[in-house]
Amino acid sequence: MTFPMWLSGLVRATPQAYRSRMETITPFAWSLALSIALFAGLVKGSVGFALPLIMISGLSSFLDPKLALAGILVSVLATNGWQVTRQGYPAARAAAILHWRYLLIVMVAIFLAAQLVTAIPSEMFYFILGVPVVGLSLLQLSGVRLSIPPARRVQAEWGIGLISGMLGGLAGTWGPTTVLYLLAIDTPKARQMVVQGVIYGAGSIMLVLAHLRSGILNSETVWFSVAMLPAALVGMAIGFRLQDRMDQALFKKVTLAVLVIAGFNLIRKGIIG
Description:
It is found in: Cell membrane. The chain crosses the membrane at residues 28-55, 67-85, 97-117, 124-148, 160-185, 197-216, 222-242, 254-272. Belongs to the 4-toluene sulfonate uptake permease (TSUP) (TC 2.A.102) family. Keywords: Cell membrane, Membrane, Transmembrane, Transmembrane helix, Transport. The protein has helices spanning 16-23, 27-47, 51-59, 65-87, 89-98, 100-114, 122-141, 153-171, 175-184, 189-214, 221-243, 248-272. The protein is mainly α. The protein has one domain. Helix 4 crosses helix 10. Mean pLDDT is 83; it is low at 1-14.
């Protein structure tokens, strides 16, 4: 199958290596991958973020990390779109206007950083994924809250947005740094969910376009990515139902603990292969 003509300038040819990786995925690996997507969707529906972190951490534990990155892309795009539309257009528009600097730098950095993915050795890629997962999760578990005074918010938007976009382009996730930033400027909970949806939605569009260009998402890996989507959507629907019924603080701590374990596993693979 080929991509539509309007995408032909973005998409690179499918590397033979991706074809062989796709063909060697066992039924057990498929089942495990779908379970990870289901859990990731459930967490995102419950707390509003962490789907890319959970999916990339879990899938990279038994699949090639670049194939794992391709696997999250369709789910990231679709679930973020759902999160944005669930909040309504007026709220989303207001959030985009208020945080336009952050949005802009995240999107540019995602596109540029994504072009480096195919040049990074697998071991280094595992390490790049693992360190932010562990560091940011432990930071949140410890209860540390950054505080950014109003006079420094413009600089913070550009700086933290750049870091978020670089992580997004390389590892497919810019959620934790975005959440930390919104907490640091004392964003009310209701507005924070809207802002997260807008930032993740815009960034996910850029991420997909970037990896069409990088070759990570191609005519072979797109089917693996599409296959992850139903499980992620089912999980997200369950998560939305749980959102008002569960102790969010406890659920978030459990989720972050899982991310720490997954992140340490990635670091282990990056060090010892």
